[in-house]
Amino acid sequence: MTYTTTASIYWSKVIKSSRKVILTKAAIDMKIIITQEEAVQKGVWNDVMSMFGVQNEDETYPQEQFILTEEQAKQLKLIS
Predict the structure, then answer these.
(1) Is 66 in contact with 42 (CB distance < 8 Å)?
(2) What does residue 57 show for φ and ψ, rounded to 5 degrees?
(3) Is the dihedral of CA 35, 39, 41, 45 positive or negative?
(4) Which of 74, 76, 8 is nearest to 44 (CA)?
(5) Average pLDDT estimate for 10-35
(6) Which pTM does this prediction carry?
(7) Where are the beta strands (DSSP E) in the chain?
(8) Of 3, 66, 48, which is closest to residue 29 (Cα–Cα)?
(9) Which residues of 36-72 are buried (b: 16+ CB within 10 A; e: fewer)?
(10) In this structure, are residues 26 and 9 in contact, taking their beta carbons and an 8 Å threshold?
């Protein structure tokens, strides 16, 4: 499983003070990458299939990657 925080950053408030710009309350959107093989090992493959619309008859590969949002990873209890 790979964690990445480079996907996107949202700034909730921008304060302009004379010539300075102050950014406050940064919220980072974290994405979690899990392979099909890792999902099977962790016992969450059926849930991942459901989240991504993968059917039993669909061909998948052990190293196929699925990108989860932070909320999805929490729902699957991969992170807390």
Answers:
(1) no
(2) -80, -10
(3) negative
(4) 76
(5) 60
(6) 0.67
(7) 2-17, 20-35, 65-69
(8) 3
(9) bebbeeeebbeebbeeeebeeeeebeeeeebebebeb
(10) yes
Residue 7 has which token pair? 């996907």
- Cα(49)–Cα(51) distance, integer angstroms: 6
Q: What is d(CA 2, CA 18) in angstroms, rounded to the nearest whole number?
A: 41
Domain spans of the chain, in order of start: 2-55+62-75
Contact status, residue 44 vs residue 75, Cβ threshold 8 Å: no
For 36-55, write each residue's pLDDT tens digit.
Answer: 999 999 999 999 999 999 99
